[in-house]
Model the fold of this input.
Amino acid sequence: MHGAVPPLCHWPRYHYFAGDGSWRLLDGDKIATLLADLIGDELTATGLAAELSLGVVQTAYANGASATYLGGKGVDLGFAKTGVKFVHEVDASWMR
Done:
């Protein structure tokens, strides 16, 4: 995969050209969804899904379809105002 992150960008975005030559973009929502799928599958495969929970915090810029998909997979969803400090607050609240 040929990835690129603009130097002034504060959220991850990667792009690549598929085998058929078409251009594809993986933005933060797609990356979070892919990682949540992978981690969820690994938790299930190792038998840890009953002991650990998986959560994703999204901001106002998040794609609603990713929240619907993740919620349907049983992933805990948190919603925060836009900004890293607000995301951290929601994340930290799950640790209490």
